[in-house]
Write a structure and sequence with these properties.
By secondary structure, the chain is mainly alpha-helical. The protein has two domains: 13-127, Arc Repressor Mutant, subunit A (Orthogonal Bundle), CATH 1.10.10; 175-212, no CATH class. It contains seven helices and five strands, in the order ααβββααββααα. It has helices spanning 13-16, 26-36, 62-69, 73-85, 138-142, 148-181, 186-203; strands spanning 41-44, 49-52, 58-59, 89-93, 104-107. A three-stranded antiparallel sheet has the order 3-5-4. Strands 1-2 form a two-stranded antiparallel ribbon. α2 crosses α4.
């Protein structure tokens, strides 16, 4: 039998001739063999019967199936479902998909009763624990702390910027409105503009700036 020191994997002749194994396609058969190869067998009792030492503790991650055996995730998922459906394996512990929290499998003998009234039907259990990332559980799942100061700074800067932009736009609108109503002397702005051009002319004598005529008709 298979164990950590033995390169051989033994399969019951009854399994090979079973009606359950005929329901599996080639890729599912391959994955079944990979599961059987992960057994650690030992003899127990006076009669020294072979038992699976690590049953319920067998681990076969999706990443390993993909990287080591080139099995696509979708193919591996369907194979697992079929191996459970026809009684070859069971899920002893449903992992959460996080690092170190792997699903654990056990080798089952339910296949022996497949096609009879004694066959116990099983399927992959649904995960109802809600392992999805939310704002509340993000820190617990990732082990990281949120950068509160950075978030606060961005929020305050955004508020200040929006406030200043709105205030400036409001002031410009008020000035335009007063000019349109004749409440502001246009000559004031013309004079200010002329002072700016004169200052530029003094600082850059090689350049010419046109003076604005301040006389009105």
């Amino acid at each position: 039998m298979s164990n950590s020191k033995n390169e051989n994997t033994w399969i019951l002749r009854k399994m090979i001739n079973s009606s359950a194994i005929k329901q599996l396609n080639g890729r599912a058969l391959h994955i079944l063999l990979l599961f059987l190869a992960r057994r650690q067998m030992q003899k127990v009792g006076r009669k020294k019967r072979w038992t699976i030492k690590n049953n319920g503790e067998i681990v076969f991650p999706y990443k390993e199936a993909q990287k080591r055996f080139y099995i696509p995730r979708s193919t591996f998922t369907r194979a697992i479902d079929n191996l459970i459906k026809y009684g070859f394996i069971d899920i002893a512990y449903l992992g959460g998909g996080l690092i170190g929290d792997c699903t654990k499998y056990s080798i089952s003998n339910r296949w022996k009763e497949f096609g009879t009234d004694k066959f116990v039907k099983k399927k992959r259990p649904k995960d109802t624990r809600g392992f999805g990332f939310t704002q509340k559980n993000w820190e617990d799942k990732t082990g990281k702390k949120r950068r509160e100061k950075l978030k606060s700074g961005i929020k305050n800067d955004t508020r200040t910027s929006n406030k200043n932009d709105t205030s400036e736009q409001k002031n410009r609108s008020q000035l335009v409105s007063k000019m349109m109503q004749g409440n502001l002397d246009i000559n004031f702005f013309i004079k200010k503009g002329e002072e700016v051009f004169q200052a530029l002319s003094r600082s850059h004598p090689q350049k010419r700036y046109c003076s604005v005529d301040s006389h009105t008709n």
